[in-house]
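Quick review question:
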């Protein structure tokens, strides 16, 4: 019996884990590193980490993130030079190797291309914590073709669908993009929109490239539709919560009625007795 429970539970956990792992690097970097580091945006309290994966070994980065002081104390010349330049020691980050790996992957996919230094990084184009409702709406209107693309490309909805109560049903010619954000990440979608690898999209956009602004709004829209998709279960949860509070409310109301009924009965008895 217990074994059956484990057998059912285990794949579920792995599934949830794999959903998490994809966005983990982004989440960790945003919550623990952006106060002091950018990826391609210049130095802050600490150095710009763009392409750090090509500059130092994974082992060095991992040791450094866990305990900068230890690496400095070991006499490592790179670490000592960094301290001399930035003057403060970065605080220890108690992260696991897997977490650090996911951060390095995130930095790697979000680093600017050395051959094309003026191109904005996906990180500069789209930042989930800065995306506003109006970005999402702008993206939705671009997706649906309500706002025409600046360079004249066709609207996405001609070929794609996104499941969202606020969007008309779109084309079924190409993949449904409701969960594109968690499937591909901002960097992945950004790359596809800039250099489409699919013949149908190459034909559509080769001579009508999307602008940074349009890509940024589309990413906000995909981020939203992705999370709305993910949130469906918690909406169900909310609905069942609502049901429970309705039932409790109804119970309280019935008890109230019973009490009132007893009082009315008592009073009417008294009334007849007087
Ligand atoms: C409070 C500010 C602060 C935070 C938070 C912080 N760092 Fe740092 N980081 C620094 C400073 C300052 C340096 C320069 C080296 C030194 O003196 O410690 C540095 C250096 C580094 C280096 C070496 C860069 C190079 O050029 O070799 C890496 C890699 C790094 N940080 C990664 C991270 C990651 C990943 C996080 C988040 C998990 C993080 N840091 C969080 C301040 C910070
Ligand atoms: C002429 C049809 C067409 C148009 C217009 C079009 N696409 Fe595509 N798109 C495709 C095809 C075909 C594929 C490749 C595979 C598939 O999804 O069937 C694709 C793939 C993609 C993918 C990768 C999907 C994945 O999960 O692998 C993304 C993201 C995407 N398109 C975004 C867009 C956006 C955003 C627009 C509007 C700016 C757009 N597309 C307009 C036909 C189109």
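Suggested answer, residue by residue:
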């Amino acid at each position: 019996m217990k074994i059956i429970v484990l057998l059912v539970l285990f794949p579920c956990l792995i599934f949830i884990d794999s959903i998490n792992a994809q966005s983990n690097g982004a989440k960790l970097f945003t919550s623990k590193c952006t106060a002091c580091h950018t990826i391609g945006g210049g130095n802050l309290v600490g150095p710009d980490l763009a392409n750090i994966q090509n500059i130092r070994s994974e082992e060095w980065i991992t040791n450094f993130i866990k305990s900068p002081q230890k690496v400095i104390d070991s006499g490592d010349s790179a670490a000592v030079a960094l301290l001399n330049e930035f003057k403060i020691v970065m605080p220890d980050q108690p992260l696991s190797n897997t977490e650090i790996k996911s951060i390095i992957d995130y930095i790697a996919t979000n680093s600017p291309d050395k051959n094309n230094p003026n191109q904005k990084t996906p990180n500069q184009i789209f930042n989930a914590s800065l995306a506003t409702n109006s970005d999402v709406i702008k993206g939705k209107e671009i997706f649906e073709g309500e706002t025409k693309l600046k360079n004249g490309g066709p609207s996405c909805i001609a070929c794609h669908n996104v499941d969202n109560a606020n969007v008309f049903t779109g084309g079924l010619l190409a993949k449904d993009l409701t969960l594109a954000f968690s499937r591909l990440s901002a960097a992945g979608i950004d790359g596809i929109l800039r250099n489409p690898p699919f013949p149908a999209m190459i034909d559509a956009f080769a001579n009508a490239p999307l602008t940074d602004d349009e890509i940024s709004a589309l990413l906000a829209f995909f981020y939203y539709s992705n999370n709305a998709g993910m949130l469906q279960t918690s909406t169900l949860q909310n609905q069942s919560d609502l049901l429970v509070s309705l039932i409790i409310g109804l119970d309280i109301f019935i008890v109230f009625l019973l009490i009132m009924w007893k009082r009315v009965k008592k009073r009417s008895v008294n009334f007849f007795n007087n």
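Why it works: Confidence is low (pLDDT under 50) at residues 14-22, 229-241. Residues 76 and 255 are 74 Å apart (CA to CA).
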